[in-house]
Structure formats: C-alpha cells, structure tokens
C-alpha cells in the first residue's frame, strides 16, 4: 500500500512540475504575442503616417522593444570575449550605437508587413536549454514571407526577455558576434577603432 501511495504522489508531483513548465513556456509565447500585437496596432496600422515621420517610428519601436529587450545584454553578447576588455564608456557607446541603428533599420522593415497576416504559431518542441523558441510568420505586403524565431529567456524577476532572434534561418546574435570579431581582427584588436568600424558598418545597412 505504501509503495502504491508513493508512486501516486510521485506521479502527481511530476505532473505538477510539467504543468508549471508548460505554463512558463506559454508565458514566453504570451510575451511575443503582445509584442506582435503592438507592432500591428502601433506601427503597421499607422504606416502611412510613420513612413513620413521616421523619428516617431523609432520612438514607437523603442517603446515596444524596451519591454522585452535588454540592449545592454544584447550588446554584451555581440561583443563576446572582448566585452571584458572594453571600458564602461565603450560598452555604453557600443550598446547605444547598436540599439539606435537596429531601431532605425528594423523599424522601417515593419512598415512592409501585412497587418492581417501575422501568425504566432503554437509552441513546438523545445530544447533542454533555458530559452523558449516562439515561431512567428510575417506576411509581407509584397507577398514575401518573413519567418522569425524569437528566443525568449525568463529573467530572475520572472520577466520574459528576448535573448536572440533568427530571421529566415539567419541567427542574428551569432552573425553580429562574428562580424564584430572580424572588425576586431581588422583593427588589430583595438576596441575603440572596432566600435567605430561597427558604427560605420551598421550605418551602411540602415
């Protein structure tokens, strides 16, 4: 009888853990749903106005992403092994340049989305890491398809934050890190010069 009761209690505890984990993963998807809804309502639906007012567009994108993106942490990951060598001022400037350029570049691309054809997919199989993958299909106004996988990670404050993004199978976190590493090599490991080259490189893409 004791063995049977123990097995039942173990089964109940495992089911409880799985339920909590599933709820946590759904929290990641809910965070992405809110961001996508904000993109649709605050940007795409107002693209006629925003296309003529780029500064307001950047402000709106910043306001939306500020809730789910820690740009200082994102910049730290991009700098990789060179982050510890950078001064606090260099880290701050690198984060600012990266943030401003990304807001300008990807804010403009949001205006090309079809607001009625954005699909946040149900959560699929997840890996063993701490990140939860949320898959979203964006239909472009010209008929093209943009697939974005948001990698979400729960902070100590139980807030879901974006840790990486893969767009049409391009891992942007990894790509940016490699690009900055190349710039460090090209500038003889001079962080100051590499940051200048990074700024110039991003400016060309915006």
UniProtKB/TrEMBL annotation:
Keyword Transmembrane among UniProt keywords: no
Signal peptide: 1-22
UniProt cross-references to InterPro entries, sorted A to Z: MlaC/ttg2D, Tgt2/MlaC_sf
Keywords linked to the UniProt accession: Signal
A Pfam family recorded for this sequence: MlaC
Protein name: Toluene tolerance family protein
Source organism of the structure: Marinomonas posidonica (strain CECT 7376 / NCIMB 14433 / IVIA-Po-181)
């Amino acid at each position: 009888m004791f063995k049977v009761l123990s097995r039942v209690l173990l089964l109940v505890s495992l089911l409880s853990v799985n339920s909590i984990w599933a709820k946590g993963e759904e929290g990641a998807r809910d965070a992405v749903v809110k961001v996508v809804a904000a993109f649709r309502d605050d940007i795409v639906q107002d693209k006629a106005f925003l296309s003529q007012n780029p500064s307001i567009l950047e402000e709106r994108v910043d306001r939306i992403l500020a809730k789910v993106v820690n740009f200082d942490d994102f910049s730290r990951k991009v700098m990789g092994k060179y982050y510890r060598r950078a001064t606090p001022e260099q880290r701050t400037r690198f984060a600012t340049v990266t943030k401003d350029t990304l807001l300008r570049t990807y804010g403009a691309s949001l205006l090309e989305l079809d607001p009625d054809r954005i699909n946040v997919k149900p959560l699929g199989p997840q890996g063993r890491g701490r990140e939860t993958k949320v898959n979203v299909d964006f239909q472009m106004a010209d008929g093209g398809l943009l697939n974005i996988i948001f990698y979400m990670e729960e902070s100590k404050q139980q807030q879901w934050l974006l840790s990486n993004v893969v767009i049409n199978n391009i891992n942007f976190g990894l790509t940016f890190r490699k690009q900055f590493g190349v710039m460090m090599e090209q500038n003889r490991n001079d962080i100051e010069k590499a940051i200048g080259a990074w700024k110039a490189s991003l400016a060309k893409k915006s």
